[in-house]
């Protein structure tokens, strides 16, 4: 406090506290761990550690140039609204499974073992908000199918 300034009034203190809370509360609400994703299938719960990409630039790059991906790792694409989407494997070095997911977390369709470097479009079967890419063949190994439910903080927020 400056020596020449008057001491703060109680109302000013209350406003300062309210301002701090107003700024802090949204941050608290957004601290959910968005690296953890779970798929509930007939075979049980399957957990993946994911990187979320949600900008045009990050979605365009995706898993291009990645040389390996752990069995329990993946990338979750968030398009922020439901719409038909299509992917390709240009500059992608590893086979991938693509799970096309509706806003409510329901797996709409799965493309298994997308071929590296293939520029053929891989479309969703309808409007989706999310696409999960995991190592090629992993969805079949785990028994993940269309209709299974995906849980993630972004998906919960989209509902």
UniProtKB/TrEMBL annotation:
Question: Does Disulfide bond appear among the keywords?
Answer: no
Pfam families from the UniProt entry: DUF192
Which residues belong to the signal peptide in this entry?
1-29
Q: Which domain of life is it from?
A: Bacteria
For this UniProt record, the keywords arranged alphabetically read as follows: Signal
PANTHER family from the UniProt entry: UPF0127 PROTEIN MJ1496 (PTHR37953)
Name the record gives this protein:
DUF192 domain-containing protein
The species this protein was found in: Devosia sediminis
Per the UniProt record, the lineage of the source organism begins with: Bacteria, Pseudomonadati, Pseudomonadota, Alphaproteobacteria, Hyphomicrobiales
């Amino acid at each position: 406090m400056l020596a020449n300034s008057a001491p703060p009034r109680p109302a000013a203190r209350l406003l300062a506290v309210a301002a701090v809370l107003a700024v802090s509360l949204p941050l608290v609400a957004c601290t959910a761990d968005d690296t953890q994703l779970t798929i509930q299938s007939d075979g049980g719960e399957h957990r993946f550690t994911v990187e979320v990409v949600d900008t045009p630039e990050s979605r365009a790059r995706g898993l291009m140039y990645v040389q390996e991906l752990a069995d329990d790792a993946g990338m979750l694409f968030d398009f922020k609204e439901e719409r038909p989407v299509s992917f390709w494997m240009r500059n992608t070095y590893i086979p991938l499974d693509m799970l096309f997911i509706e806003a409510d977390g329901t797996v709409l369709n799965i493309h298994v073992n997308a071929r590296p470097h293939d520029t053929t479009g891989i479309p969703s079967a309808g409007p989706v908000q999310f696409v999960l890419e995991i190592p090629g063949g992993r969805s079949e190994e785990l028994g993940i199918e269309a209709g299974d439910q995906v849980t993630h903080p972004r998906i919960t927020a989209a509902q």
